[in-house]
């Protein structure tokens, strides 16, 4: 049954809706047509405006002095919002780059910026390609059938980003579990528990781990990103424990979960569009375009929130001071006014003005690394691929923030 605008808006606050991609995109398409800046008052959530058009998401991103990340950078329940604000007042809350505005955002972002600049990324490429080969070889070892999302895609980017941080491989499984609990807090399979207090506890476990790491890197600095974060100084003073741990959390989690979702979703798209798979194999020079199309197609980050600092208008809709806005990236990336045939997976799409990495001052710090990883993996896989097909039904994570496929059963032959 086709939803009305009210029902479509409520889908944005329903983690299970994101796991039903066709129905979810049907709701977003309706909002773009009928109510592109739509007021949502969902049970258990504080109200917000859903922003679904590419042009409007861009306008909000550009106006970072009018629309702030704080105090509500992500969609959360009323109770979790309350708990987060209490902890922020006590100085013991998660405070990553996505929680900050200038001037704090600018100076904190600069701590890790050099590690993601082009020269640093070129230096990382041999390691990324080595790990891509390791995980395509793993597909061979798995004997021609596997759950690609769980057995391959989730591990490759994890190894890349945690190698950049300088964490020992013995800790990688722990980081994977904590990340799945953090981003999968609304998914019954991944969540540690259903209560908001249990979700907060996941963050506290992250903090405890990274506090130990900070102490170790300050005593014995090393040549890795973890040491750069631990020993960073702002106005001559080191970051406090929670800001340091928060920096680790955003790099360690967003730095792999989003990329693994893109690799899994990209492979599913190639399987379900064999003409595009054949086209990419015949014309490997299309790979950079294909990578961005996979990123647009999957859009692993589903939303960020902004808060208006004064009364304003967006597409003729009056937004009041203090109102919250939800920027729907999956919707912006299927906007019919921007993308030709947006529901067609096209490995040669050019131009591709997707907003999966955001825009402006909050543009994703790790965007270049993500592109390198996705490209390296498929450049290793496709020349060795004989055949490939689905071996079961793909399943997606229930989430309102970051997610993608949690299961992708495939059958294949590889050289």
Automatic annotation (TrEMBL):
Q: Is-annotated flag, keyword Iron? A: yes
Native organism: Actinomadura livida
Report what the protein is called: Cytochrome P450
Q: Is the keyword Iron assigned to this protein?
A: yes
* Record GO biological process: cholesterol catabolic process
PROSITE patterns from the UniProt entry: CYTOCHROME_P450
Q: Which GO terms describe its molecular function?
A: cholest-4-en-3-one 26-monooxygenase activity; heme binding; iron ion binding; steroid hydroxylase activity
The record's listing under Pfam families reads:
p450
Q: Which residues form a coiled coil?
A: none
> Could you say which protein family the record assigns here?
Belongs to the cytochrome P450 family.
Q: Which UniProt keywords apply?
A: Heme, Iron, Metal-binding, Monooxygenase, Oxidoreductase
Q: Which top-level group of life is the source organism from?
A: Bacteria
Higher taxonomy:
Bacteria, Bacillati, Actinomycetota, Actinomycetes, Streptosporangiales
Q: Could you tell me which SUPFAM superfamilies the record lists for this protein? A: Cytochrome P450
InterPro entries per UniProt: Cyt_P450, Cyt_P450_B, Cyt_P450_CS, Cyt_P450_sf
